[in-house]
Amino acid sequence: MSLVVLFYKYDIKLLDSGSRNILNQDKLHFLTLKNRMLSHAIIQLERFEPYQLKIVNNKYGKPYLKDIKNLSFNFSNTKDCIILAAAMDIGEIGADVEYLKPRNFKNYTTFFTDNENEEFLKKGTLNDFYRLWVLKESYTKALGKGLNIPLKSFEVSTKKDEITFINLKTGDKLYGKTFSFGRKYICGVCNKNKQALNNLRLINFSQLIES
How many domains does the chain have? Predict the structure, then answer.
């Protein structure tokens, strides 16, 4: 039972003068980077059998590997950063990363439940808004449907010093975790296993491949 999160941050000098995302400029390089990250994650999860990285997607676009059972993983990227969350034998995982850019988040209150607006947005801080947003997205990705899931069909709560997701129709519960990379990036991860989330390993993939 193990969960790892790898993050890779591009050198800002690689971004062109138009500030476009380099991850979208070079699709082949992006795909190679994702494969290298996934290969490293599989090794970290102690899965050493021979394999080929044949990534396929479900009808909602969530990727998975046909040839490795019980492996769940999820990529997310923003600006000049990409993350990969991967886990073995603990069910589906979802992850989202966002760059904290200025935003009038009060325009987004209609996307959230009354309790979420009260808990996260009443303080009026940008960090609270993004924390809620990455958690909401990580939940929809964990279920494999992305934003096809109505954001008000479930609720995020941080009461009792733990992050929980509650399906408002069925009462089903999942758990979450958030963390930051420096002061400008925030990440949310969702899974059913609270212990695995609490013990996840964070790996700076930039240092590994540039050393």
Answer: 1
